[in-house]
Design goal:
about 200 residues; mainly alpha; de novo design (two linked rop proteins); about 65% helix; membrane
Length: about 200
């Protein structure tokens, strides 16, 4: 009876415990991204009903959603830098085009007041917040787990009993989030507008 107690006191269970916590946090991230993907078709259909001329943005959103949902994700993704980067890049692409889709609603007052659009917009904003929280919790769990693989006394178990345990990948901020947004208050010139006629000389 004493030997198992001594093992537990030495941290033999620390690595698998932290590993499982990180995996659970990863599952939460995937769940929130899937929730967002499920909202996209209805959002696109609603916007299309009022702004069919915005077909470029609508197509980009549909394609980005397809890319994000087609990226293969399995248990090895969190320890594979290339696979993890593909997953994050696909999700970041969808985030960007969804932002543009919501931005064009400013040009369509009827769309902005549509109850279905308002409900979808609210759900999407709530989901984006949950994604941010899930990613933060995942990163914290992964940092804790990765640290246990490199620090005493758990590094002893990492080199022996759990030699197959490898560090997990962290979510990084998108490159576009590192730059301040460019804002211009100058009115856009009208397309194909002719110069105003000059007043006749007096």
């Amino acid at each position: 009876m004493l030997f198992p107690v001594l093992l537990a006191g030495c941290g033999v269970n620390t690595i698998p415990t932290k590993q499982e916590k990180a995996k659970a946090s990863w599952a939460d991230v995937q769940s929130q991204y899937q929730r967002r993907a499920d909202l996209v078709p209805n959002l696109v259909a609603t916007v299309q009903g009022y702004a069919v001329q915005e077909r470029t943005v609508l197509t980009q959103v549909t394609q980005a959603r397809a890319s994000a949902t087609q990226v293969k994700v399995d248990a090895s993704t969190v320890t594979d830098p290339a696979a993890f980067q593909r997953y994050q890049a696909a999700q970041n692409q969808l985030t960007g085009v969804l932002g543009r889709l919501l931005a064009i609603s400013e040009n369509y007052p009827d769309l902005k007041s549509n109850q279905n659009f308002l409900a979808l917009q609210s759900q999407l904003e709530g989901t984006e917040n949950r994604i941010a929280v899930a990613r933060r919790d995942y990163n914290e769990a992964v940092r804790d787990y990765n640290t246990s693989l490199r620090t005493f006394p758990t590094i002893i178990w990492a080199k022996t009993a759990y030699s197959s345990a490898t560090p997990m990948q962290l979510f990084q901020a998108a490159e576009t989030s590192q730059a301040a947004p460019s804002v211009s208050f100058a009115p856009a010139p009208a397309a194909n507008s002719a110069p105003a006629p000059r007043a006749p000389a007096q």
